[in-house]
TrEMBL record:
This is DUF112 domain-containing protein. Residues 15-436 form the DUF112 domain. The chain crosses the membrane at residues 6-28, 40-63, 103-126, 133-153, 165-184, 196-215, 255-276, 351-378, 384-404, 411-444, 464-487. The keyword Transmembrane helix applies. It comes from Hoeflea phototrophica (strain DSM 17068 / NCIMB 14078 / DFL-43). The keyword Cytoplasm does not apply. The lineage of its organism: Bacteria, Pseudomonadati, Pseudomonadota, Alphaproteobacteria, Hyphomicrobiales.
Length: 504
């Protein structure tokens, strides 16, 4: 790690590749269905003729840009462009509805840059020691981690917690459709060959989030988003002041995202939800999460972008992809002849450090390009008539869903789930618990079955599930997240009683 590697990253070619990657990734990530994984996979072939460091810089820039790009549709359309932007919809869309969509876009950009820089810094300084964290996680730790994620439904549910838990259970049920993770049993297909492949997560996400919005757009005569005093530019100065005031939340959420990114398979969606839940748990009395709170956007966007750098740690040091896009990038590395592993930072240190500096540069470039693209995206979404907006978004959802597996059945499932989601929303059931159950269900099932098999084979079943230190720590956090809403409601009730007594 020296100035020579930094100089290599700052060559005109690598700067141009970083800029192109950020722009392309942001645009692709903003389209529902075209996830970060797809953005990276589509552009992998053009890297085969490049030098390894340049190829890595391009793919890393596309990845980080796509993660940020998902915030646009999450804020302006209530539809996560990527799964990692699920929690961005909680406060981003309410801000847009009240006329602060431009501010929300600016806040998301600042948070994404901070998260990306902290994740890249962890990759630069802590890669070898932090990689041991990933090795310490076995099947039972992933089981408890997924249960911890499911327990967040209680704290994320605004309104009726029971309805949130019911939605999570419905998502778990949907995750069981098709071939079982371990045993390969065929379940809940009702004799349909179409359902053997299961319910694709991104398609389900598009349907549950986007279709209800499209139905409401058609059903209501009002404008999609509130606009006061014409269309303004993105409020980058005001967003910078808000981000600076909440710098502790940004750093904490970025660290959460980095740590979760290190865990193979967890990804930005889990990181964003955990960071959002922690921000909500430590919120001040005047903060109303779920109603357009800027700290909610900052928590999830900084966390999901920090997973980019965090996910590269096990990918480069252990050869274990931290997230699905990392798996695609790992394949591109193997084609380039780069062998990952503990010795990579010694034998191939020049390539790795040039890439890390390039990731820093791409993240910094995301600030001006993100604000610029966000400005025009906001103006377009706000001013475009519904007669154009609805068909355009509907077309993108269909194309995005079809492109994932080239299956028209996925499109039909997406539309059906979206219609079901709209009906459920009329009765107070939110889409987020359903999606969370659908994402975490396979992780929980695989971890449970594998841990059961290992525990049964070793004759230590209870020790396998309840005798490992990391598992016990995750169980403690799970219990805390389940009990916290109860403590919070009792505390609020006690404060109201004290205020009533003081008024008397």
């Amino acid at each position: 790690m020296d100035f020579e590697n930094l100089a290599n990253a700052l060559t005109l070619t690598n700067l141009a590749l970083a800029l192109f990657g950020v722009v392309a990734g942001t645009v692709i990530g903003s389209i529902p269905g075209l996830s970060a994984t797809m953005a990276v996979a589509v552009l992998v072939p053009i890297t085969f003729a490049m030098a390894p460091a340049s190829a890595l810089i391009l793919l890393g820039a596309i990845y980080t840009g796509a993660i940020y790009g998902g915030a646009y549709s999450a804020i302006l359309l209530n539809t996560p462009g990527t799964p990692s932007a699920i929690a961005t919809t909680f406060d981003g869309y309410p801000m847009a509805k009240r006329g602060d969509g431009d501010l929300a876009v600016a806040i998301a950009c600042y948070a994404s840059v901070v998260g990306g820089l902290i994740g890249a810094l962890a990759l630069l300084l802590l890669a070898p020691p932090l990689s041991t964290v990933a090795l310490a996680f076995g099947p039972v730790e992933y089981l408890w981690l997924s249960i911890f994620g499911l327990s967040l439904i209680a704290s994320l549910s605004t309104g009726n917690v029971l309805k949130g838990l019911a939605g999570g259970a419905f998502g778990l049920l949907l995750s069981c459709v098709g071939v079982a993770e371990i045993s390969a049993d065929i379940r809940l297909t009702f004799g349909s060959s179409t359902m053997i492949g299961g319910i694709e997560v991104v398609g389900a996400l598009i349907g549950l989030y986007c279709i209800p919005v499209l139905i409401d757009l058609v059903a209501t005569p009002e404008r999609h988003l509130k606009v006061e005093d014409g269309v303004r530019a993105v409020r980058f100065r005001e967003g910078a002041r808000i981000a600076w005031a909440s710098r502790f939340n940004l750093v904490r959420s970025s660290i959460i995202g980095t740590v979760i990114g290190i865990l193979p398979g967890a990804g930005g969606s889990v990181a964003g939800l955990v960071a959002y839940s922690e921000a909500k748990r430590t919120a001040k009395p005047h903060q109303k999460f779920g109603e357009g709170e800027p700290d909610g956007i900052m928590a999830t966007e900084s966390a999901n972008n920090a997973t980019v750098g965090g996910g590269f740690i096990p990918t480069l040091v252990l050869g274990i992809p931290g997230t699905p896009p990392d798996a695609v990038i790992l394949g591109a590395l193997l084609v380039q002849g780069v062998r990952t592993g503990p010795a990579l930072f010694d034998g191939g240190g020049s390539i790795v450090y040039t890439f890390i500096f390039g990731l820093f540069i791409a993240t910094i470039l995301m600030l001006p390009t993100g604000l610029l693209i966000g400005r025009y995206a906001y103006k377009t979404i706000v001013t475009i008539p519904k007669t154009i907006l609805v068909p355009t978004v509907g077309f993108m959802t269909i194309i995005g869903t079809f492109a994932i597996r080239n299956s028209i059945s996925d499109v039909i499932i997406m539309i059906v789930l979206g219609s079901v989601g709209w009906v459920l929303s009329r009765f107070g059931f939110a889409a987020s618990p359903i999606v969370l159950g659908l994402i975490l269900g396979p992780i929980a099932e695989q971890g449970f079955v594998q841990a059961w098999i290992i525990g049964d084979a070793t004759g230590n079943l209870m020790g396998m599930f309840f005798g490992r230190p990391i598992s016990l720590a995750i169980i403690a956090f799970t219990i805390l997240s389940l009990l916290y809403p109860v403590f919070q409601s009792r505390r609020a009730k006690r404060l109201l009683e004290m205020q009533a007594n003081s008024n008397d």
